Amino acid sequence: MPLLEPKPEALRPGAARAASHDRVLDGRAAGTPEPLRGELTELLGPEKVLWKVSDLVKYASDASPYRFVPQVVVVPEDIDDISAILSYAHGKGREVVFRAAGTSLNGQAQGEDILVDVRHHWTGIEVLDDGAQARIRPGTTVMRANATLARYGRLLGPDPASAIACTIGGVVANNASGMTAGTTRNSYRTVSSLTFVLPSGTVVDTADPAADELLAHAEPRLCEGLMTLKAEIEADAELTARIRAKYEIKNTNGYRLDAFLDGSTPVQILRGLMVGSEGTFGFISEVVFDTLPLDRKVSSALLFFPSLTAAATAVPRFNEAGAIAVELMDGNTLRASVSVQGVPADWAELPKETAALLVEFRAPDEPGQEAYERAAAAAVEGLDLVAPVASVTNEFTREAKAISGYWKARKAFVTAVGGSRPSGTTLITEDFAVPPALLADACESLLRLQAEHGFEAAVAGHAAHGNLHFLLAFDAAKPSDVDRYAAFMDDFCRLTVERFDGSLKAEHATGRNIAPFLELEWGPKATELMWRTKQVIDPDGVLAPRIVLDRDPKAHLRGLKTIPEVELIADPCIECGFCEPTCPSEDLTTTPRQRIVLRREMMRQPNDSPVETALLDAYGYDAVDTCAGDSTCKLACPVGIDTGAMMKDFRHQRHSPREERIAALTAKNFKAVEASARLAVAAADRIGDRLLETVTGLARKAVRPDLVPEWLPEIPGAAARKLPRTSRVGASAVYYPACVNRIFGGPDGHRGPSLPQAVVSVSARAGKPVWIPEDVAGTCCATIWHSKGYDEGNAVMANRIVEAAWGWTAGGKLPLVVDASSCTLGIAHEVVPYLTEDNRELHRELTVVDSLVWAADELLPELTILRRTGSAVLHPTCSMQHLGDVEQLLTVAEACAEEVVVPDDAGCCAFAGDRGMLHKELTASATAKEATEVNSREYDAYLSANRMCEIGMDRATGREYHSVLMELERATRP
User: Fold this and answer.
1) Beta strands 426-433; 355-363: pairing state
2) Which one of 139, 464, 575, 667 is at 20 to 30 Å from 844 when CA atoms are compared?
3) Looking at residue 885, what DSSP letter applies?
């Protein structure tokens, strides 16, 4: 055992806890039982079978209020694996549920037997016909697909608020629509063709001209059954009319019976039925979408009204004016959204009864935009608008930042309002649709019903389409609260159907919570046709039972999850999953959502239970050690939950007092540590990579892998012993070379000035010379200690660097320019909680500037570009995302290169200082997609602005990355 192996007990929840009724029982502590585990391992291979209880728990939750623990999780790589899983399930009488992003709001991504993760190996997009179509794999997020299509001036029709995380497979399987899709731009209308695997294992490509012939040969009974149902529906004029009428407004409740009317052959019928089938008819392995024009001329307004009814009444005006989106938000939604970055703080003071409409027009050109703006102005005339707080303008704008802020507030409805719910409560998200002309009446009725049942109102929706969303928060651990929810649902469903003839699910799909009410909306005849359709396609009931069809009238009350309180920083989490695509460890161990889900299960367990112990044993590596600590999850989370910070705190909790003392000692003596590190790197050139890898490998085994870095061949040589000579007299800024740039040199193949030399030279050329203090050695941004959770060492260095910077800058009179983005972030923001009160005062006087900002804003306007490289690919770092410096990286790069590319799959490299040397598998996983994209072609330059991230990308791609400031120096060199 390593000398300093951390003890899982350090993270065991301390307070005595009663066992929760929905905890994972002790008998499941060993994970997947035999023979299931062994049989699937033999069938698929051990790397594709997740069986530990921690694996099962982390997949048990999704964005819905339900929680079902699977027996096993499998991770197929291709259609052959899918077919093998389905064949096994048929032979063994087992059930299968497919899960991609887990952003579904009604439990569609949860299963109680075999759960199939189709996110990890199922990403990719192929643009067809110059962007008119796109072939997309099911694990690709909507945002990722649209990023590629934007280069062609196109986008997808469906635009759900969860586009950052939700995947194409889920969007099609749920017929998700979103802000602008309505009934004409959703998946049902814009999917050109599908490739899917039926429950029997038969693969169907609906674009294949021979598809019907092949299907008839493989599945004659299925084809016959579908055509029989089609004939029966078409022979019933009343039923046919009812089906057509149901889809005049948004409706995703039940199966798409209009597929029998729109399709003339079994394959065409199946193409329609698969859309919105929620994984109950088969696995969608590929989708070809007809894309839509990306109209870039945008005009938007956020218009405030005295009441929800007043806002709803105004909606028809904007529909008639041609608005592509008219989004409704009530007062609670507006006030809760102040937790979202970019939303005006004074919205917190809005009166509760206030409501707003977000109205947007999009045009392909300037004349079209002007015409829409005239129509918008006419629509606004005579409206009873209010301006309760100073930030409200009630005016249309073209300004992209303002428009982005409006949409952030709207898209954060579920997460922001849900994040502000009372601690310990479960969140239910409902959506329904009524004919748009009845929207105002529906709003009034909904508010009355919520009040009658004691629920706080929180309403938003796609008002242009009569589609409303609302939230309910209750404690699933209290039977009285569950009864209250049940009574509300009974009344709500009757109200929607009997008074408004509406859709009980407009875009979130039936799921578990509306399945019992399906017949109420559709009637017995249509509902029975849906049951028969399921029987024809999946006669053995292998796929996703109880998710669309369920005869149990109380099925929506089964599996409601409790939300035990966890660490304060994570407690608001509603498990939406928005954080997951940004997480570097997403494809390796756990995501931020899963780290919180696992912690909550520990809290459900009684003290020292076998399940709690098993979870703790896995949590150290899966959650704590392999968290990059980059906190990009905070940027993706609408309520700013920083799971990275929680993991750093857990690292701190695992430290022994001895470790903390040693860490503090290194901070106090960092000048000697820095010099020793530089000498060691210099000596490495003579020792050789292989020997160093062996020595560090042995040290890691003896001490602890999370403490001793592994030597990597990509580590560059040592930096020059002395920094460039500069003068304080006449300096425009103080230049602080980060310790990584004082220890490590540039790429081995680089010929030219070092980064410090480049910064000094290019600043002088611009007439803005910088000064490097003589005593920078021994100082650091403190990120080394912060990222590892060494609080005492962090405090030592944080206070040292602020005191030094205050002196260097003459009390803040000069800016402090830092040449590594992570170090800029550290000095500007992350040191603050560790400062003494006196040093916080000093810190407030400092102006900390990233070298990218210095170059783009201060130097570039004064420089003459003399030469440009042909092409450059960029790696924006996570610190740049936090600082908002990515635009400056682009600006400087575009000055230096004819062509600049930011990979669509660019993300955090997870090198994270030295974490990529502690857990190289983390960086390998985090950079895999970006590296594949980068290496798909050659570039003349590979640029970033953080030395350790550059090393990480060197390792990932086999290329040599260097700072964009070194490229700027070359481009402007006389």
Assistant:
1) unpaired
2) 667
3) -
Taking the alpha carbons at both ends of the chain, their separation in whole angstroms is 59
Structure tokens at 750: 């680089």
β-sheet bridge partners, residue 204 = 196
Pairing label, strands 941-944, 962-963: parallel
d(CA 540, CA 924): 42
Task: Give me the torsion for CA of 97, 100, 103, 106, rounded to 10°.
Answer: -10
Distance from C-alpha of 360 to C-alpha of 709, rounded to nearest angstrom:
52
Tell me: pLDDT of 309 over 50: yes
For residue 200, what are the CA distances in angstroms to 204, 215, 536, 885?
11, 12, 11, 52
> What number is the average pLDDT over the span 64-75?
97
Q: Which helix (H) or strand (E) holds 377?
A: helix 366-380
Over residues 43-49, the mean pLDDT reads 98
Would you state the pLDDT for residue 256?
Answer: 98
Give residue-wise pLDDT tens across range 748-766: 877 889 999 999 999 999 9
Beta strands in 717-776 (DSSP E): 733-736, 770-771
- pLDDT-derived band at 101, boundaries 50, 70, 90: very high
Q: Which residues contact 690 (CB under 8 A, 6 or more apart)?
A: none
Q: How confident is the model at residue 712 (pLDDT cuts 50, 70, 90)?
A: confident
Q: How many CB atoms lie within 10 A of CB 808?
A: 22
Which of 671-680, 707-716, 817-826 has the least mean pLDDT? 707-716
280: CB partners within 8 A, 6+ apart: 534, 538, 543, 544, 547, 548, 549
The pLDDT value given to residue 698: 59
User: Sorting pLDDT into bands at 50, 70 and 90, what band is 3?
Assistant: very low
| 52, amino acid identity | K
CA-wise closest residue to 499 among 520, 483, 475: 520
Return the number of other C-beta atoms located less than 10 Å from residue 296's C-beta.
Answer: 12
Whole-prediction pTM:
0.95
pLDDT of residue 173: 97
Share of the chain above pLDDT 90, in %: 84
| DSSP collapsed to 3 states, 155-209 | ECCCECCCCCCCEHHHHHHHCCCECCCCCCCCHHHHEEEEEEECCCCCEEECCCC
> Where does 78-130 show beta strands of DSSP type E?
96-99, 114-117, 125-128
> Is 947 in contact with 915 (CB distance < 8 Å)?
no
Q: Which residues make Cβ contacts (< 8 Å) with residue 566, sequence separation at least 6?
A: 596, 599, 600, 603
SS3 92: helix
Query: How long is the chain?
Result: 974
Tokens of 595: 């780290």
Rounded Cα–Cα distance for residues 149 and 83 (Å): 31
564-577 per-position pLDDT tens digit: 999 999 999 999 99
Query: Rounded to the nearest 5°, which phi and psi values hold at 944?
Result: -155, -155
Q: Please determine, for residue 2, whether its predicted confidence score (pLDDT) is greater than 50.
A: no
Bridge pairing between strands 459-462 and 467-474? antiparallel
Q: Classify strands 733-736 and 816-818 as parallel, antiparallel or unpaired.
A: parallel
Helix, strand and coil content of the chain, in percent to the nearest 5, comes to 50, 15, 40
Distance in angstroms (rounded) separating the CA atoms of residues 950 and 747: 9
Which value, in Å, is the radius of gyration of the alpha carbons in the chain? 29
CA 924 vs. chain centroid, Å, equals: 20
**Residue (of 531, 498, 562, 520) closest to 66 by Cα position:** 562
Q: Average pLDDT of the chain?
A: 94
Handedness of CA 103, 105, 110, 116 (dihedral sign): negative
**644 contacts: CB under 8 Å, gap ≥ 6:** 592, 627, 628, 629, 630, 631, 632, 633, 634
Kind plus residue range of the DSSP H or E element containing 292: strand 292-293
